[in-house]
Amino acid sequence: MTLAAELFQELEELRQTGLLRKLRTLSEGSGTHARWEGKELVLFCGNDYLGLSRHPEIIAAATEVLEKYGVGSGAARLISGTSDLHTELEQELARFKKKEKALVFGSGYLANLGALSGLAGEKDLIVMDKLSHASLIDGARLSGASLRVFPHKNYSKCEEIFQKETNHPRRILVSDAVFSMDGDSADLDELIRLKEKYNCLLLIDDAHGIGVYGPEGRGATEGREEKIDLIVGTLSKALGVFGGFVTGSSILIEHLINFSRPFIFATAPPPALCAAALKSLQLIQNDSSFREKLWRNVDRFETQNRSPIVPFIVGDEKKALEISDKLLEEGILIPAIRYPTVARGRARLRITVSAAHSEEDFEKLKRALNCHCETAFQQLPPPPKADPVLPLPPEADPPLAGAEKQPT
Question: How is domain 55-286 classified at the CATH fold level?
Answer without folding.
Answer: Aspartate Aminotransferase; domain 2 (3.40.640)
